[in-house]
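Tokens help. Consider this.
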Amino acid sequence: MADAQKGKNPEKAKRAAAHPERPGELCKAPAGKFLPVVDVRRCEGKADCVEVCPYDVFEVGAIDDAEYRALPALNRLKLWVHGKKTALTPRASACQACGLCVVACPEQAIVLAPAPLE
């Protein structure tokens, strides 16, 4: 639970750490063994993942134009309403699979996936 206190919002991180359906390795996986995957069709850019992540993996920013155009019309409309903002993972390799982002996301838009073998 100590790692949960490192996020930008310690109270929200503490609630996520206590969630009974929290997946992952509870912050014990080697960095980069798992990667957070954001479903941009569900994400509304609310930044809960940014607030709870103890490893500074996430940021909220504009979706790539090509990825935006490739989405179905209803998903594009939803993203447009939210300023085309979504969770991005520029530091995904720092993820230690604590699962806080997964349970904190109100849209259930994040999953942890094993990193591809190199």
Notes: Residues 1-5 have pLDDT under 50 and may be disordered. The chain has one domain: 2-114. The chain has five helices and four strands.
